[in-house]
Amino acid sequence: MLYKRVLLKLSGESLIGDNEYGIDSKMLSRYAQEINSIVDSGMQIAIVIGGGNIYRGIQSEGAGFDRVQGDYMGMLATIINAMALQSALESINVPTRIQTAIKMEQITEPYIRRKAIRHLEKGRVVIFGAGTGNPYFTTDTAATLRAIEIEADIIFKGTRVDGIYSSDPERNDDAKKYDTISFEEVFNKKLNVMDLTAFTLCKENKLPIKVFNMNKQGNLYKVCKGENVGTLVNF
Domain span at residue 134? Predict the structure, then answer.
């Protein structure tokens, strides 16, 4: 494999599958199998998953909640998704630990950097839940922060599109796909890869990003091998 340790960022919406909301067990099972293929190769993998399939904090104001309360509700949604993914992984005998930025001792471990790294070294998948534990920060930012802390080689951002395009490929047939692109080009072209805080953290800490279609079977394994899948954001 090209990398020793990676952090995989998944959106909560990716778990919806064919449903309108919530968690599709078929998608969970598919993701678990994809992740298992990486674990079997000996590579270390940590995961951050969003909560948008259950609740989005940014929607809270329209629902009558203040933003801070809504963001905490969104953090709890990420823990539900983390627990669901853990169950799917352990059902196929993949050792897994959840660590959360909000203490929930009865069901998860609190986030401790050294302990997370030790789990990874022992071949366990570590799922980070509850974002950064602070409102106003996205799970993209949480993924970047955790990747830097555990000294990951790269962030894999699994999406429903096969890379970064010059414009929305679902709306513009003439959109150009980039195989590789620099951080400066992303800034200058105002391309939407991650939120600005997360993207800036990656740039300042020289952490490359790989954007690819997680819903295509075998893609995760291919990007781990360094195959030309998706888009690499590098320096």
Answer: 5-234
DSSP 138-204: -HHHHHHHHHHHTT-SEEEEEESSSSEESS-TTT-TTPPEESEEEHHHHHHHT--SS-HHHHHHHHH
Q: Average pLDDT per run of 10 along the chain, which is 235 residues long?
A: 93 86 91 94 95 73 77 94 97 97 94 98 97 95 98 94 86 88 92 92 96 92 91 93
CA distance 221 to 130: 27
Residue found by looking up tokens 């930012």 in the block: 141
**Packing angle, helices 139-149 and 113-121, rounded to 10:** 70
Exposed/middle/buried for residue 115 (C-beta within 10 Å: 0-12, 13-18, 19+):
middle
Say how many domains are in the chain.
1
CATH number at residue 53: 3.40.1160.10
